[in-house]
Design a protein that fits this description.
Layout: E1 2-7, H1 12-29, H2 33-37, E2 47-53, E3 56-65, E4 70-78, H3 87-101, E5 106-112, H4 116-124, E6 128-130, E7 142-148
Parallel strand pairs: 4-5
Antiparallel strand pairs: 1-2, 2-3, 3-4, 5-7, 6-7
């Protein structure tokens, strides 16, 4: 069973999971990592989520306001040993529930072309590829998604 804790960016389990995420992205993104990294500072987040399986922190995600109606999904990650169990989809669903509770009606997100697992997850969860937004406009390695809640 997966339990969730809504938290903030100073929570230790969230910090540890994001550290693992950043190490993975540094390898996947290669030379592009510093560009993406500047947009992923956790101190800019307010709504953070940690997923626990048997009290072990196994995954995380966050949302932040993008505009008056839309939240941006950030920092999605599941530890490698826990992948393939549907945890990421559960984290994403919990973030969507939280966004609706906060009166937002849509979510957007960006992921990289070198993250096929993430792309498959977002498509499976009903996200549609959309035009790149903000800092990701014109970036060939970015794929942006949106979903109405």
């Amino acid at each position: 069973m997966i339990d969730f804790q809504r938290t903030n960016p100073s929570q230790n389990d969230f910090i540890d999971l994001v550290r693992e995420l950043d190490a993975d992205l540094k390898i996947r993104d290669g030379d592009d990592h510093s560009f993406y990294d500047q947009f992923n500072k956790i101190q800019n987040l307010k709504y953070c989520l940690v997923a626990y399986e048997h009290k072990v922190a196994v995954g995380c995600g966050a949302i932040k306001p993008f505009d008056a109606q839309t939240m941006e999904v950030k920092r999605m990650f599941v530890l490698p040993d826990y992948r393939g169990k549907g945890i990421a989809a559960k984290v994403l669903k919990e973030l969507e529930i939280w966004a609706k509770e906060l009166d937002f009606s849509a979510c957007v997100l960006e992921t990289g072309v070198k993250q096929p697992e993430a792309i498959a997850l977002y498509k499976k969860c009903g996200y549609q590829i959309t035009d790149s937004y903000g800092q990701y406009m014109g970036i060939d390695n970015s794929i942006c998604f949106n979903k109405n809640l």
